[in-house]
Amino acid sequence: MRKALSAGLLLALPLFASPNEELMKKGYEVFKKSCSACHVEYMSHDEIREIRRRVLKGETPPIKAPPMNEVALRVKHFYPEEEDFIEFVKDYITEPMREKGVCMPMAFKLFGVMPPIGKGLTEEEKEAVAYWMYHRYEGSWEEMIKKFHGHGKGKGKGKGRMMREEED
Ligand code: HEC
Description:
Layout: H1 2-12, H2 21-35, H3 45-56, H4 68-78, H5 82-94, H6 105-111, H7 123-136, H8 141-149, H9 161-166
Helix pairs in contact: 2-7, 5-7
Bound molecules: heme C (HEC).
């Protein structure tokens, strides 16, 4: 098992600069089938900020999980290497646990821990969706935070308060 997996990763390596199209396609299919019911594929900074604002006011969030772009950049912040990222995602979706999770505390508070969706997927499907997550999104968590802080009136003072408080 372990051996087959590393062979899979090695095959993808020569194409590192431009992601393997077939894996990307496969990963996206898995996403649509098994993840998109809860994770939207992409949500803009403005939309995410608006939801946070409403949630702070006590409203129920209109989504069931953090958007995938946010999740992917957050996980990449903790697991920057492709191989570690893929390992983490595969493991997490199969056996999610608060202690393992790197999502912000607010995500767990709002949505609870993710169900073990990966248990219903094959190794290949998990590998593909994790690969897709790694390559689908540009930018970094740091850039995303900066955009939150630097946005809007008041020169960012007090903006992103929620994000900062949660970073511990
Ligand atoms: C039933 C809803 C649901 C589905 C379906 C779902 N997720 Fe999630 N996911 C969540 C929630 C809620 C969180 C935030 C709490 C957490 O991290 O456990 C989350 C968080 C995550 C995280 C971040 C984990 C962390 O905290 O570090 C990853 C990675 C992830 N999901 C991947 C996936 C992938 C890949 C799929 C599809 C194969 C998927 N999810 C399907 C609800 C879902």
